[in-house]
Amino acid sequence: DTGVSQNPRHKITKRGQNVTFRCDPISEHNRLYWYRQTLGQGPEFLTYFQNEAQLEKSRLLSDRFSAERPKGSFSTLEIQRTEQGDSAMYLCATQLGDEQFFGPGTRLTVL
Amino acid sequence: RKEVEQDPGPFNVPEGATVAFNCTYSNSASQSFFWYRQDCRKEPKLLMSVYSSGNEDGRFTAQLNRASQYISLLIRDSKLSDSATYLCVVKYSNSGYALNFGKGTSLLVTP
Questions:
Q1: CB B42 to CB A45 under 8 A?
Q2: Which residues of A sit within 8 Å Cβ distance of B?
Q3: What DSSP state is assigned to residue B97?
Q4: How far apart are CA B83 and CA B38, in angstroms?
Q5: Per-residue pLDDT tens digits for B19-65
């Protein structure tokens, strides 16, 4: 499979726990994005990397959220001290030209 | 007020019908426009880009009116497989490369 992959696909956690998600991009795509999508809404932008540099962060990305992309390859998104409002689908996307290719997402449920 | 507005629907149409979706955007510094398709519990996928001159891809026609800040998608001869959520997407020239999504319009094509 040469598309964007994300792990895990599903995560259930208790409020207050930390969670980390991983995104493996399409290999030749140097731009990587994280989005969050809740039920009935379109995806909302969280952050953007060009290679290993994090160039843009949304105001949605509170200080409990941190994203990294060491060596400009895979990326991780960590949420600390999860809250019920963090329950959502977290989507990773990479870009070639004008098109963004999305991974299958990680569905997070915070109990 | 959300920056990209769509009628959420649902639009229920019979097979073979023609259906049109509309979208408005509020940021005049808009650079690129797209329609993405999202199937239930799947990731969004690019359906088509939208150009100022209008463009067509098979049964799908997209139109852009920059003066009115309005985008449309027309689906002719709708198929059962067209049932999905259609997301209007705008990329702004002053916000990096992040995509700004509408909430999506739900389409159900019935036999």
A1: no
A2: 31, 33, 35, 40-45, 48, 55-56, 58, 91, 95, 98-105
A3: B
A4: 9
A5: 999 999 998 777 889 999 999 989 999 999 998 888 999 999 999 99
